[in-house]
Design the sequence.
């Protein structure tokens, strides 16, 4: 599988070339064009977690189904794009695990396994998601963001990231959710523009997005005209 990323960082699109009978799995609705020899199918799940993994993913706010794309007779090309305007990145697996914000997973090769990672009580207070996707195995994953993607290497020190700006982080890192300001009340109310943050410790890489889709929705939402009821 070969992936070429275009129009980065604000309107990124992925051009993916697949070998004959090579499978690509993607979130439903992200395909915008493909060769006529590519067969598209809908599957519950791929990887070791089976149907249980699909149900867990649905409970975490993800679609129960994934789209499967497979070229027949020859190699094929497919173009994928995220729903939000933003960037794309590839991540290569060789046995390590990556924790991904639920909305940031776009696609992956067939040897990348998807599972749900229950981060417990601390994720509840993050205000973002109780459940994160955990990707592992061998192969390539395609992740998306709202805005540009930038990396934050952590090497033994502690690093804080606003919860709404996290795309993914390597599971070699540990994290706790804490207040951004001097008081919990101020942080929970977002005083000063900041709310809760994840404090990372250990050695690994954090992948962040330049924009917060929740904050953007709260800003734009009140400015939209009310929906007409016919």
Sequence:
């Amino acid at each position: 599988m070969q992936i070429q990323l275009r129009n980065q960082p604000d309107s990124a699109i992925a051009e993916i070339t697949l070998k004959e009978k090579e499978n690509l799995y993607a979130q439903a609705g992200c395909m915008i064009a493909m060769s006529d020899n590519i067969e598209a199918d809908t599957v519950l799940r791929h990887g070791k977690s089976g149907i249980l993994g699909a149900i867990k993913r649905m409970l975490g706010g993800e679609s129960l189904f994934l789209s499967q794309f497979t070229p027949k007779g020859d190699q094929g090309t497919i173009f994928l794009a995220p729903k939000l305007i933003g960037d794309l990145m590839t991540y290569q697996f060789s046995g390590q695990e990556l924790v991904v914000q639920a909305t940031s997973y776009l696609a992956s090769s067939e040897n990348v396994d998807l599972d749900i990672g229950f981060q417990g009580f601390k994720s509840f207070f993050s205000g973002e998601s109780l459940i994160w996707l955990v990707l592992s195995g061998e192969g390539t994953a395609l992740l998306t963001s709202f805005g540009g993607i930038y990396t934050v290497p952590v090497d033994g020190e502690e690093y804080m990231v606003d919860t709404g700006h996290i795309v993914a982080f390597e599971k070699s890192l540990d994290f706790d959710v804490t207040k951004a300001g001097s008081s919990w009340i101020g942080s929970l109310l977002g005083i000063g523009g900041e709310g809760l943050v994840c404090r990372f410790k250990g050695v690994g890489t954090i992948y962040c997005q330049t924009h917060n889709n929740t904050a953007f929705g709260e800003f734009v939402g009140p400015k939209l005209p009310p929906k007409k009821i016919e």
Remarks:
- Confidence is low (pLDDT under 50) at residues 120-130.
